[in-house]
Amino acid sequence: MLVLNGTSTPRHLQILMKTRAAVAYAPNEPLVIETVDLEGPREGEVLIEVKATGLCHSDLHVCTGAVPWQFPAVLGHEAAGVVVECGPGVTQFAPGDHVIPFLIPRCGACAYCSSPKTNLCLQALARLKPRESRFSLKGQPLSQLWGLGTFAEHTVVPADTIVKVRPDAPFDPICYIGCGATTGIGAALFAAKIERDASVVVFGLGGIGLNVVQGAKLAGARQIVGVDIQPQKEPIARRLGLTDFIDPRTVPKLTGHLMKLTGGGADYSFECIGHPETMRQAFECTHPAWGQSYVIGVAPHGADACCTPAHLMLGRRWSGCYMGGARLDQLPELVDWYMNGKIELDPLITHRLSLEQINEGFELMKRGETIRAVVRL
To answer: 2-178+344-376, which class in CATH?
Structure first.
């Protein structure tokens, strides 16, 4: 429903759209389904009808206060939808286009966008902090998580943060490519660039870790070891390419065990949990001369990860990896991979929920009973 607010103000102040959203009023409180106001797209922005949005652990970190954010807020960032309206100056999209938002935009003008050394954009860093939102409720602003806010039937986002994808791809599960699937697959293929016959250790076989496994298999890794305290994840991990599974509770000296298992240390390791202690274990289980360890999991705000300097001296490398090292324009290719059967997404979507069930989805995540829950709108 459109509501006219006046006739003498600029267009973006004239029209508000009523839409439903899951509103987070404060950390550690259940989200509340509200009918909120959404301002139309301004210059360089696009109005999207959200068709599906995944529940990511990063959203949970915000919900619990582990990652600071401004409340009240419309959270959510992993989504797929349809363009409804384009703001002034937007010519690369049209109503009806199927799109995926991404946390890393492509402004095309900053030094980051011009460098082949990174997938980042300066705008991505700016949008990690609250900015002016298009959502409001009873005249009070609702912040949009990282400039997206996809836990809503509609949202308005910058045009440089979405990409057009093929219209025959189902919104569920390709919304998963907007974050979790790309973060994991990309870490293996785009960031680490795992070579054939490499040995790989993955800490955490959740929504991201399983996709690291999938990416490592695509790269031709000889050995892919998964470390997780939930043995029920082993079958799906093996389906995606895992060769060895380890429950760390059953191994007295995990790092030493992993080094022996991989023949002197893994070529690559990936920490997909967000715990400083496992980040160190992941680093130390790599080969001392050429091992590379990637931190993917989001640690609590203010946490520190450390290592013994001697473990760096011979050539080990410890690196971060944001959104799998992927750029926005690579997402359509990943959608093609899914549609062509090169990667699997369907078995990783374990729960499909309505917007009213979103709190149930987060509870499933807390209990470790889901790989990826998707809210269909």
So the answer is: alpha beta
